[in-house]
UniProtKB/TrEMBL annotation:
Protein name as it appears in the record: Cation diffusion facilitator family transporter
Cation efflux protein cytoplasmic domain segment(s): 207-277
Predominant location: membrane
Residues making up the signal peptide according to the UniProt record: 1-21
Length: 297
């Protein structure tokens, strides 16, 4: 917000549309951080009768709202202001204000972006940055990464537009820089919307996590094999696992119950976020009926 105030002051002194667009961009970014905090707080609520699986996916909803806010406020305003400046250009007054604020903001945003990179590296593992943004089940870090990247690039575009306007004396360059900011924000907003929509609709476990669950299930003595299995993220740190497992026909009900308990224990030990597990036992028809379909009932 401090950076936003500085940009608005610079915009007032210079009449630069790039500075005004960057000020709006900073306000939108600050509001987005508040939305992410609200989403995290609401997601922590205990489950209710109406929402028996809890509110974990509220984090996905608020991340989606962030994408909408970034597009409607940041991108739309920047595009409008940039096009208006191109149609009716005017020079940049007292450019020292713009240069001072932009250089300060670039340093501050670079530090913020570095912090986001360090935090992301702690959980990214060996994934590429594109894979991390696409596969992360926790929406906050990818959102902040893209926002910080957009903020840094937006400042560079603004600096380019103001510099060219000062050098050439043509305010059209200021408008071009503003349009570049708008296009950048629109692209980031679309990427965020697509990724968070996928999480909101419902994504399963990662291939590595699914492999760990299968190995844990198959290692249980009473489980002959897995007939089929489905997973679903109820939130970033809560996974639902549903599976139909084949058991020996000669096992008693008590043995099957104990086998299911042991299988659940092994799944939770291998994948701690697998908090909701439903296992349905079925006869191992591959053993009891040689001609039966290997997929079971």
């Amino acid at each position: 917000m401090a950076i936003a105030v500085a940009k608005f002051v610079a915009a007032a002194f210079t009449g630069s549309s790039s500075m005004l667009a960057e000020g709006i961009h900073s306000v939108a970014d600050s509001g987005n951080q508040v939305l992410l905090l609200i989403g995290g707080k609401r997601a922590a609520r205990a489950s209710t009768k109406e929402h028996p699986f809890g509110y974990g996916r509220e984090r996905y909803f608020y991340a989606f709202v962030v994408a909408v806010v970034l597009f409607t406020i940041g991108a739309a305003f920047s595009l409008y202001e940039g096009i208006h400046k191109i149609v009716a250009p005017h020079g940049v007054d007292a450019p020292i204000w713009a240069f001072a604020v932009l250089i300060f903001a670039i340093i501050a945003e670079a530090f913020s972006f570095r912090t986001a990179i360090v935090e992301s590296n702690a959980v990214r593992g060996k994934q590429s940055w594109v894979a991390f943004i696409r596969r992360s089940k926790s929406p906050e870090l990818p959102v902040i990464l893209l926002e910080d990247l957009g903020a840094l690039l937006g400042l560079i575009f603004a600096l380019f537009g103001v510099t060219m306007a000062v050098i050439t004396g043509d305010g059209t360059w200021d408008g071009i820089g503003t349009v570049m900011i708008g296009v950048l924000l629109a692209v980031i907003a679309v990427v965020l919307a697509m990724e968070t929509k996928s999480l909101l609709v419902g994504e399963g476990a990662t291939p590595e996590m699914e492999r760990q669950i299968r190995e844990a299930l198959e290692s249980a003595p009473e489980v002959a094999r897995i007939i089929h299995m489905r997973t679903l993220h109820l939130g970033p740190e809560e996974l639902l696992v549903g599976a139909k497992i084949a058991v020996a026909g000669e096992d008693t009900a008590g043995e099957v119950a104990r086998g299911i308990d042991e299988a659940e224990r092994r799944i939770r030990e291998a994948v701690p976020i697998a908090r909701v597990i439903y296992l349905e036992p079925d006869l191992d028809r591959a053993r009891t009926t040689p001609d039966a379909s290997p997929t079971g009932a």
